Amino acid sequence: GRLLGNRYEIIEKIGGGGMALVYKARCQLLNRFVAVKILRPEFTSDEDFISKFKRESQAAASLSHPNIVNIYDVGNEDNDVYYIVMEYVKGRTLKQVIKERGALEADECINIGKQIALALQHAHTNHIVHRDIKPHNILITDDSRVKVTDFGIARAATASTVTNTGSVIGSVHYFSPEQARGGYTDEKSDLYSLGIVLYEMATGRVPFEGESPIAIALKHIHEDVTPPSVINKHIPKALEDIIMKLIQKDQSKRYNNAKEILEDFNQALKQPMGDFVKIDED
Ligand code: ATP
Ligand code: MG
Ligand code: MG
Q1: From the CA of 17, how far away is ligand 2's center (Å)?
Q2: I want to staple 25 with a disulfide (CB 3.0 to 4.6 A). Which of 8, 189, 225, 263 is the partner?
């Protein structure tokens, strides 16, 4: 196949999002598989996208954690091909898992949720906000290890960082109210998005759907969430409490940090899974 950077042999396309295409490749020097994310050609003349792509690479490369996809290399071929080389994760995205199996068991929700929280704790401690936490960016290996990828909108969370108010980047189904408003986003936005991901794992669906991105964004800002146990009565109260605290519209009512979530997950695991939320059957 095609050779990038004199060492990465492209094997096959494995996916593609709004900004880039992802290929499985083999590093000929180290003789191992890698994932290569190549910026879509229609964007390589756009300086905004190039700087976004570089920012994504640098933010992700500064992190080193077992639950975060490792960045190995970046490159720029003379013919305007920009790429980022990362750890190849054999498995499926959480989106695929939910699509195939519907709502997951409570212990699996907690197992996956804990690993995402560990990834966020590491990133947030290093002042990196992900800003695009969604099931497409959660890779799950066959032995249930979680790797968070695509720090596509992540950048160092400094006081001067104010997000764009223009075009919609990322998936609005997982946007926090403050993100939906196009305002300042920080670590607490990632916690809200994690709450939506947990909600989807526990119930098999996201809390807000709509005709347009704007309609969905408005629901995140204004509409009350149907408690997960109304959709799936098997959800333990401890898990429902964690989800509801993560998706508070008021930032100050959410968890303060990922570490606090981990403490509640561990508490939830100590409680028998039979301790379900009681709801009226009639
Ligand atoms: P968006 O552009 O909104 O971020 P996306 O997250 O679906 O959308 P990409 O981040 O480009 O797009 O990833 C596309 C797909 O490639 C993923 O859904 C996943 O299936 C696959 N993929 C991404 N990174 C890896 C990796 N490191 N190892 C294996 N597969 C990967
Ligand atoms: Mg992605
Ligand atoms: Mg992306």
Answers
A1: 6
A2: 8
To the nearest whole number, what is the mean pLDDT of the chain? 88
Q: How far apart are alpha carbons 109 and 104 in whole angstroms? A: 6
Residue with tokens 């396309």: 13
Distance 132 CA to ligand 3 centre (A): 8
Element (H, E) at 213: helix 213-222
* pLDDT score at 274: 54
Ligand nearest to the CA of 94: 1
The residue whose CA is least distant from atom 4 of ligand 1 is: 17
- 143 tagged catalytic: no
Residue in the structure block whose two tokens are 């013919």: 79
> Can you tell me which residue has the tokens 């916690």?
191
| Ligand 1, pocket residues at CB < 6 Å | 14-20, 22, 35, 37, 69, 86-89, 93, 136-137, 139, 149-150, 152
Phi-psi region of 272 (alpha: psi -120 to 50; beta: other; left: phi over 0): beta
Span 105-160, pLDDT tens digits: 999 999 999 999 999 999 999 988 998 899 999 999 998 999 999 875 544 333 32
Can you give the pLDDT at residue 169?
Answer: 53
Angle at 154 between CA 150 and CA 158, to 5 degrees: 165
Residue tagged active-site, from 78, 132, 250, 275: 132
Ligand 1 atom at minimum distance from 147 CA: 27
What letter represents residue 89's amino acid? V
